[in-house]
## 1
Amino acid sequence: MSERERTFVMVKPDGVQRGLIGEIVSRFEDRGLKLVGGKFMRIDRDLAEEHYGEHADKPFFEGLVEFITSGPVFAMVWEGADATRQVRSMVGETDPAESPAGTIRGDLGLDLGRNVIHASDHEDPGSNEREIDLFFDDEELIDYDRVDEGWLY
Ligand code: RTP
Ligand code: MG
């Protein structure tokens, strides 16, 4: 079995406004991942610019920062074997139109700008830990056993 790891996930402002937090949390629970942190919050401009810093020179950067700061988000940390890659495969492609049915963006996303969810990038090693550190203090991440641990990822 692959190594257990933690990964960062966030329901974006469009997902919160459309009442999709529960649906998205359920998908990860159903998949056998373990929730170790969760926070309903607003992102300020500084945090948004740091979080999406890799896109600072892209033409869509300003719009992306405005969108992600436009309303509350639900930030989460999920744990499991190979969790970053597992979560990204459940999320789908950046553009919902390119995302297969059955993926979160394929089923729930509207367009490139309103794609309901962010997840750490498995093709950018270390992005999961970097993003977890950016959004959560250590004491906000909860170590615990789930009763069905042996059956989970
Ligand atoms: P995210 O970081 O939000 O999870 O999305 P991602 O990895 O699938 O995509 P990424 O390349 O990191 O882009 C971040 C967000 O920027 C918006 N975007 N707009 N050409 C465009 O207009 C464009 N390209 C990307 C998307 O909302 C994407 O989620
Ligand atoms: Mg990304």
Note: The mean pLDDT is 96.
## 2
Amino acid sequence: MTIPKTQKAVFFEENGDLDVIKYDDIPVPEIGEGDVLIKNKYAGLNYIETYFRTGLYPTEKPHILGREATGEIVKVGSKVNNLKVGDKVGYLSTATFAQYTRFPATGNILRLPSDATDENLKLVAGALLQGLTALTFIYEAYNVQKDDYILVTAAAGGVGLLLCQLLSKLKKAHVIAYASTDEKLKLAQEAGAEFLVNSSTTTYEEQVKKILDITGGKGVAASFDSVGRDTADLSLAVIGRKGTFVSFGNASGPVPPLQLGRLSAKNLKVVRPVLYGYITEHEEFEKYTNQLFHLIDSGELKIYISRVYPLEKYIDAAREFEGRKTTGKLVFEIPQ
Ligand code: NDP
């Protein structure tokens, strides 16, 4: 196939609100001897894109958005021997909100069956990053035990619905879902949450009391908290003695500096994990990816893709997402 010189991509050149986002032509990257060039078909939306755009996480510019995608290999470097032109793949990389992405062949890439359909590619693009996040965290950030009570914030979000399912089905834990609307909580319940806390219709004091009551006054074994600034105090208040605060996101802003002395009263642990720290070694990526797709293929784990947008509609999708109007996973279809 002929590879064009330019391609469409979603990127920004300065930090700011959504109006800094551009959907425009940029060069198709050249590949090195150890790289492959992937023609993308679907790419998943993740909250980290917001952090890069706003400047919360520093990055070089121009910055092409996107952290995961599926597609087909259209070119391989001279030293690549594990992948070939025509292979269908799913992978974790920067710069996936583009028609083509350059990627090192030794990176976090997964070869898909040659008969994988567009539906399969969509599913993998919707599952990879958030699925691996939820799966690695429940083993490695805090190794959840049977019958633990676990608080999950943003429980109807992309990661949240996966956590609800994995914690309840795989780990047999009791999930307390925390979300801002009854519709979101209903979805979390369908995904396995046993107890529901509406963050909009209850006060902070009511939330603390409700969660402590649910746990018979003991508090939760862990809080998987992706909301950050707005929920850190709640998490610390409801985690029980020897419990773990898994603080893994900043949807409402970063958690303010924490006085270590606050941990003493209950001998708490705090973990601030990122997915990549659990899949650094190829064996780790392979192990968790195999487990993730086994759970999906067996029907034990459902990927809630709530909407597919054409890539050119990135700003519309991000506005809904950042405005807390979405549930589950959003996926982009890349123009071919
Ligand atoms: P979600 O689908 O969960 O969307 C974010 C949700 O956060 C919203 O729907 C909303 O749910 C909640 N929220 C609470 N306060 C705010 C606010 N002020 N502004 C916006 N949203 C708010 O997103 P993802 O599943 O993509 O990601 C969830 C979190 O997990 C993010 O914080 C992300 O950074 C983190 N993450 C971390 C990873 C890591 O490696 N550490 C990897 C992947 C994700 P509600 O209305 O119910 O409160």
Note: The mean pLDDT is 97.
